[in-house]
Amino acid sequence: MTSSTLTMNPLDGGRKLVLLAVCVGLAAMLGASFLYRLSNPSLVQQGRGPAAQEQAGEHDGEMEVVSALMQKVQQNPTDAGALFALGQHFLDHSDWARAESFLARAVVAAPADPQPLYMLGIAQYQQEAFDKAAETFERLIEIDPQPGARYNLGILYRHYLKAEAKGNAHLKAIIEDAKAPEDLKAQARQELESAVHGDKKQQDKKQ
Fold it and tell me: What is the DSSP letter of 48?
């Protein structure tokens, strides 16, 4: 009678070990990423307009696009669309100071447009000008109370400006906003829950 016991090929065992190692590595990376986001809260980026290529027209190459936009601004210094596209371009390339310069001009050219204000706040935040960023987002929600702008104010006040009560008020407003995206509401709830858990830990330490 022949044995029906299955045997494992050594190569199969090696593959399983490799797969296990990869899975463990991915889990560790995801965990580290989650912990980093908890300790380094960031703003949400919305309010983006058409790409610079669309603003400039049909041009080949990035330098041609930027050159065309610059020419537009030279011809018309108050061309809000070109100013915003240049600001967005420099924001995408992490040139925060130049982005802020063009976006600030776009805000002057189109003061009722919330998009330049939103991206201006992001540029100021990236330069750690947290007071200025909060002022910009406060100005934005007076024009258009966007949930994303409120979330950014919640983060700025809670984590950077030591004004937790003001930050919490903005986060609660998102949760109560029927038009706010569900994923943003979830982020707002998570922030508020972290505040509650943080207060409890502080109380436990005092006891």
Answer: -
Task: Look at residues 157, 159, 187, 161 and name the one whose alpha carbon lies nearest to residue 175.
Answer: 187
Residue 121's nearest CA partner among 149, 155, 95, 81 is 149
Distance, in Å, from the CA atom of 204 to the CA atom of 141, rounded to the nearest integer, reads 38
Tokens of 107: 């805000």
pTM of the model: 0.72
pLDDT in single tens digits along all 207 residues of the chain: 444 333 334 444 444 443 444 443 444 333 333 333 334 577 887 655 554 444 444 445 788 989 999 999 999 999 999 999 999 999 999 999 999 999 999 999 999 999 999 999 999 999 999 999 999 999 999 999 999 999 999 999 999 999 999 999 999 999 999 999 999 999 999 999 987 644 444 444 444
